[in-house]
Design goal:
Purple Acid Phosphatase, chain A, domain 2; six-stranded mixed sheet; elongated; Metallo-depent_PP-like; Metallophosphoesterase_sf; Metallophosphoesterase
Length: 396
């Protein structure tokens, strides 16, 4: 009942927001197209505004391409809706100020509407560039533990791929190429590899692209909240296993003297009867003198991980808000919503993710991959964050 009530409230809010947006657009179109059929307009507009939800409705096999089309259209509309929610109240405010000032407004609708649409086009083009053009961020970190070599351990990390109807094989091939170019010892996929439904992942054989990832000591993944939403975890883990990628579900693997720990996503606490293990229980019996790298998709519990002896914690989930000004919200929801943090001796890195949820649009956020260079012999006294070739020392 609680979920149904929440869904009803969400639909009501979306309906009111879209009526507000639709009314503004109708005023502009009627100024451009006098005599426009208003009933036909509202029918088309409401179908588009709810197309993402329509695209998620299970359909017969023959109609699934139509559902995918609705989901793609709806994804882009979500970006337009967020832009409109920010810009239209500002436009209305300006209109009110001009009315109070006694300014003539005969051309306001056309001029303001054209300005907003031009800004929307700039927003979509710039946001698309940020979503598809990837930054490789390098973090060189010292861990006061040894694996018997002075050569840094290279770990390639990607989170939030969201592979599905929007992010597909083309973007995935770029990721594989970039990660293999790092010549990694270990590859880690920190959750939300899928964009909920496994169907496009299977249909487009995306696992064959992931199979091309090369690492000396293995490729490992964890579950994110979207794998849980999709409900195909058993099938997903088996497909990943078939291409040599182990999905760690509250499991620990030792490889080349390093522990790789994979937690179940926090969503398991609500969607699985057994929930998930605590960090301390997960690490029980491990040799804490060895380096411990842990993936936990949602960036929470840094203090607990630090006290348990984790050396490096890797998360994603936030997308750094994906579209500004959402990053103001994620910054307040999480102790660290993006970037690097030193918590006692724990190095925390939260990625903004490689793919996108919903629209392939990013503003104040970038598609990114992480390259870790872990110095494990005590020879370094600082770490470096490198972005697009620019290095900055970070005292640790």
């Amino acid at each position: 009942m609680r979920m149904l009530a929440g869904a009803a409230v969400m639909v009501l809010v979306l309906g009111l927001v879209n009526v507000y947006i639709g009314w503004h657009l109708s005023v502009l179109l009627q100024a451009w197209l006098p005599g426009m059929n208003i009933a036909a307009y509202w029918t088309v507009f409401l179908v588009i505004s709810f197309s993402y939800m329509i695209g998620r409705v299970p359909l017969p096999q023959a109609l699934r391409p139509v559902g995918r089309l609705f989901k793609v259209i709806g994804s882009y509309y979500l970006a337009c809706m967020e832009f409109a929610v920010i810009m239209l109240p500002l436009t209305d405010l300006l209109y009110g100020v001009l009315v109070l000032a006694g300014v003539g407004l005969s051309a306001f609708v056309t001029e303001a509407g054209t300005t907003v649409l031009v800004l929307l086009a700039v927003f979509l083009i710039w946001g698309s560039r940020n979503a598809w053009s990837t930054v490789v961020r390098t973090h060189r970190l010292k861990v006061d533990k040894s694996i018997g070599t002075s050569v840094p351990l290279t770990v390639a990390v990607a989170s939030d791929l969201h592979l599905g109807n929007i992010v597909g094989n083309r973007h995935l091939r770029r990721m594989v190429r970039e990660m293999n170019a790092m010549n990694p010892d270990i590859v880690l996929l920190a959750g939300d590899v899928l964009d909920d439904s496994i169907e496009p992942f299977i249909r487009n054989r995306m696992e064959q692209q992931l199979k091309q990832l090369k690492a000396r000591y293995g490729v490992y993944a964890v579950l994110g909240n979207h794998e849980y939403y999709g409900g195909s975890i058993a099938q997903y883990t088996e497909v990943m296993r078939s291409v040599g990628i182990q999905v760690l579900q509250d499991e620990v693997v030792e490889t080349s003297g390093v522990y790789v720990v994979g937690r179940k996503d926090k969503t398991a606490e609500a969607m699985e009867a057994g929930g998930r293990l605590s960090v301390e229980a997960l690490l029980e019996g491990l040799d804490r003198s060895k380096p411990i790298l842990m993936m936990d998709h949602q960036p929470t519990g840094f203090g607990i991980a630090s006290e348990a002896g984790v050396d490096v914690l890797l998360s994603g989930h936030t997308h750094r808000g994906q579209i500004a000004p959402n990053h103001w919200i994620t910054r307040r929801l999480f102790e660290l919503d993006w970037g690097y943090l030193l918590k006692n001796k724990l190095h925390v890195i939260v990625s903004s993710g490689y793919g996108t949820w919903g629209p392939p649009i990013r503003l104040a956020s970038r598609s990114e991959l992480i390259k870790l260079e872990l110095v494990l012999d005590g020879s370094m006294s600082y770490g470096e964050d490198k972005v697009s070739g620019a290095a900055k020392p970070v005292l640790i």
